């Protein structure tokens, strides 16, 4: 498999920065990886907090959850959890993922060309 394809697949399908690390661009890869993990971690923390808020607001009636109450709790938790940091993390993650994939592909393509000549 070409290094370009391998790097792009690792950065695109697994995690941004992984393709760069495999292509021996460790500093660039580590920076992408750390920022991506920080964004993902923040999003997970916010999702867990929202889920905890939903569960705390639910009342069991005869061992069953009232669907109307569940929808209301989900709607309220969604409105409360939409803080600015979560939005920033989500907006930052997409260009990191796309940019990391393209960057890994270009780095791999450059290495593939050097090996052929």
Q: CA-to-CA gap between the ends? A: 18 Å
Q: Mind telling me the C-alpha Rg?
A: 21 Å
Strand content: under 5%
Q: Report mean pLDDT, rounded to a whole number.
A: 87
Shape descriptor reads elongated
How many strands, which pairing sense, and closed or not: the largest β-sheet? Answer: 2 strands, antiparallel
Number of domains in the coordinates? 1
Poorly predicted tracts of residues: none
Q: Encode the helix/strand succession as letters.
A: HHHEEHH
The spatial strand order of the largest sheet comes to: 1-2
Secondary structure layout plus pairing:
Elements: H1 3-14, H2 18-22, H3 26-57, E1 60-61, E2 64-65, H4 67-81, H5 84-116
Antiparallel strand pairs: 1-2
Helix pairs in contact: 1-5, 3-4, 3-5
Description of the structure:
- The model has no long low-confidence stretch (mean pLDDT 87).
- This protein has one domain (3-116).
- α1 (3-14) runs antiparallel to α5 (84-116), α3 (26-57) packs across α4 and α3 (26-57) packs antiparallel against α5.
- The chain has 5 helices and 2 strands.
- β1 (60-61) and β2 form a beta hairpin.
- A two-stranded antiparallel sheet has the order 1-2.
- The chain is elongated and about 75 Å long.
- By secondary structure, it is mostly helical.
Descriptive labels:
2 strands; two-stranded antiparallel ribbon; mainly alpha; single chain
